[in-house]
Amino acid sequence: MSRHPLLHSARLLALSSHPLPTCAVTVFAGGLGLLAGNSIARSLLIAVCVLAGQLSIGWSNDFLDRGRDAAVLRADKPVALGEVSSRLVLNSAIAAAVLALLLPLTLGIGAAGAAWVIVISGWGYNLGLKATVFSFLPYVTAFGALPAIATLALADHAFPVWWAWAAGSLLGVAAHFANVLPDLLADEATGVRGLPHRLGARGSAIVGPLLLVAATGVLLLGPSTSWSWWRLVILAAVGAGAVVGAVVGVRRPGRRPLFAAMIAVCALDLLLFAVSGGTLR
Q1: Averaged over 123-138, what is the pLDDT?
Q2: Which domain holds residue 16?
Q3: Do residue 121 and residue 48 come from a single domain?
Q4: Largest Cα–Cα distance of the chain, in whole Å?
Q5: Separation of alpha carbons 198 and 29, rounded Å
Q6: In this structure, is residue 152 part of a structural domain?
Q7: Structural domain tally of the chain?
């Protein structure tokens, strides 16, 4: 036991929040806020609003799945291992959810509505959609709503352009496949059969990278009326990387190469959009 019980509990809570995807989505939301034209302070507020929602989703996931995680001996789940109180995780999830419902109101009712879509989608996934053929739908709605928070938080409360919705949704479904792939066997052993499970490890390892390429293509070509050579070169490079990720994903489904690739592609997409001169609205 740590000499500092509060710090020890905080560390275990952080590990129970799905820290990598939580941080990735939070940074992505803040970056979209800046690209939409929000101030740094307002973009940070957007990030905090999304962070609260992601924490509530991550904690509720580990609380609801604690029995299944324990059954398959998940060593990366402090709740399932009994290292942190399930009551503490549940209370933290509820507190974060309340904050995620109230804090976005400071951005305006439109942006708040988009933020609520993300939270409701995540909780819906945790409460049962994850075990159905429609497991991808919460990712479509949640990631598709991310650009809307950024643009609806502006003074004119504008909706994002079509390709921003489309790219966000495609990235979301790609994230779903990449995140589930390493846990396919453990999930199936406990009765969870979402869309990736039904397609299998090989099918998921192929579909995930294809979705990443499609999302990048939409972001590169959507805001442009001309097919600039550098856009095509970058799209080809992402495609080549996707092929490598697919091969690794098929051969080593227990690793997380596709998820790491998804985060890298998201960062690249943000950078490319920033230098392209496009606009989210």
Answers
A1: 95
A2: 1-106+115-125
A3: yes
A4: 61
A5: 31
A6: no
A7: 2
Q: List CB contacts of 82: < 8 A, sequence separation 6 or more.
A: none
Q: Are 62 and 124 in contact (CB under 8 A)?
A: no
Instruction: Answer for the pair 25, 54: CB distance below 8 angstroms, yes or no.
Output: yes
Q: Which of 47-51, 132-136, 250-254, 261-265 has the lowest mean pLDDT?
A: 250-254
Task: Kindly state whether residue 144 falls inside one of the protein's structural domains.
Answer: no
Measured distance CA(78)–CA(69) in Å, rounded? 10
**How far is the C-alpha of 144 from the C-alpha of 153, rounded, in Å?**
15
Tell whether 179 is covered by a domain.
yes
**Residue 14 carries which side chain, given as an amino acid letter?**
A
pLDDT for 56:
98
Cβ-contact 47, 36 below 8 angstroms: no
Nearest to 241 by CA among 210, 218, 198, 219: 210
pLDDT value, residue 259 = 64
User: Do 55 and 116 meet the contact criterion of CB atoms below 8 Å apart?
Assistant: no
